[in-house]
Amino acid sequence: MNKQESYVVCRFYEELNDFLSPQFRKHTFRHDFKGRVSVKDLIESLGVPHTEIDLILVNGESVNFNYLIQHEDNLSVYPMFEHMDIAGLSKIRAEPLRHIKFVADIHLGKLAKYLRILGFDVLYENNYSDSNLAQISSNEHRILLTRDCGLLKRRIVDYGHFVRHVQPLKQLLEIVNWLDLKRLIKPFYRCIRCNGVLADVEKSEIEDQLLPKTKLYYHQFKQCPDCKHIYWKGSHYLRMKNLIESVIDQDNETNNT
Question: Which of the four pLDDT bands, split at 50, 70 and 90, describes residue 237?
């Protein structure tokens, strides 16, 4: 068989179509290739980051990213399944994440703050380079959140998500619905400034750091042991409480429109 005649028949499902050229979306299409090509490289050449994929079937059989595409293979590519456990079927990753934790790129600072308000472990610094982000994601098994498709195509990144929305609150709802996180929300657990785990603190221990009215009207406090920031149930608490309630009460179908 002449290398120039090699082709694969492809079909991408659900939200993976967001990354494809319009002529390839939501239908089966033929894609020509030359030489030895891994299924990962072929998929990413079409625009789909490997981190968005949960299952690859070639001729009906589950394969991993190292599978070498053969002439006339039939390729079906699926995103994360929301209502089906495919742990025993998919060969994409060696093991699922035991703990949900994130690292966010420099453009997602507000999203990182919102996720921390819900109690999720999110690393964020506005000086992280792409290499830093990829390495942190790989070393600490964190889900990399970004709006940069190229970053998600780095080979060392196993877990990641391309954030579709631009507005931070919609981004938050997107992530909560994508991973079905409502059951894991733990409000006022983390410091929204540095991601540290908050601890109760006696008023007497921090009294000299409080403003006069705060000292007079509030008596219960939490403090971050890392950055020492102090929290109490003032107006900022009410704003965060409203945010949390809006996420919990939001209908999934509405979020995705």
Answer: confident
Nearest to 32 by CA among 56, 58, 11, 5: 5
- Cα→Cα distances 133→126, 158, 192, Å: 11, 12, 19
Given 3.90.1150.10, 3.40.30.10, 3.40.718.10, 3.10.20.30, which CATH number is that of 3-78?
A: 3.10.20.30
Contact indicator for 155, 148 with CB cutoff of 8 Å: no
pTM listed for this prediction? 0.84
Which one, of 8, 18, 17, lies nearest residue 165 by Cα?
A: 18
In whole angstroms, what separates CA 213 from the centre of its chain?
Answer: 40
Contacts of 171 (CB under 8 A, 6+ apart): 108, 110, 111, 114, 163, 165
